[in-house]
Amino acid sequence: QVQLVESGGGVVQPGRSLRLSCAASGFTFSNYGMHWVRQAPGKGLEWVAAISDAGITQAYTDSVKGRFTISRDNSKNTLYLQMNSLITEDAAVYYCAKERGPFDAFDVWGQGTMLTVSS
Amino acid sequence: EIVLTQSPGTLSLSPGERATLSCRASQSVTSTYLTWYQQKPGQAPRLLIYGASSRATGIPDRFGGSGSGTDFTLTISRLEPEDFAVYYCQHYGNSLYTFGQGTKLEIK
Known about the structure:
The complex is a heterodimer.
Chain A: E1 3-7, E2 10-12, E3 18-25, E4 34-39, E5 45-51, E6 58-60, E7 68-73, E8 78-83, E9 92-99, E10 106-109, E11 113-117
Parallel strand pairs in A: 2-11
Antiparallel strand pairs in A: 1-3, 3-8, 4-5, 4-9, 5-6, 7-8, 9-10, 9-11
Chain B: E1 4-7, E2 10-13, E3 19-29, E4 34-39, E5 46-50, E6 54-55, E7 63-76, E8 86-93, E9 96-99, E10 103-107
Parallel strand pairs in B: 2-10
Antiparallel strand pairs in B: 1-3, 3-7, 4-5, 4-8, 5-6, 8-9, 8-10
């Protein structure tokens, strides 16, 4: 079945780095754009970053530009989010999501991985 | 940047009643890129409606979406116990994806 499984979350100190991964299965990963969406505790959803199917184009929300990098390895069916210079406001559950098509809705979501930023 | 404002913040209804949730955009948006999601506690969001009015695969027909321009509506015709959750609208525009702040639908 179509599935996304995130990993890599944990507790990290402010200013440090962490890389999240999202393993995809059940669909042709290289055909779809992918996204990261986060949700701080008790808060709403916030789109973080997107990458096109071939990995050529990326987009970011303003608050993470210059600190986060989205990438993918289509040979491994895996999406990544490299997070540098982490701040307390980055603490959240991070979801990866598959888009139905370019600029379209997110039709498949992972279960999420939790990031805590604390000294 | 387009801002999506959802109302009400919380909606208290009973099973069997009709629910009407609003999503208002700060400027006119393309209906093609207006989406609704449902999220239950401890779960990932679930796609309900895309293109403002098209139901996603497996979504019951009691869920309906409508609207255009700046005003969009998610309607649940007869609430089932499993429908009580938080609902988010989302829009794509200018290389950015924006979510509304959510409407919590709770049992009265």
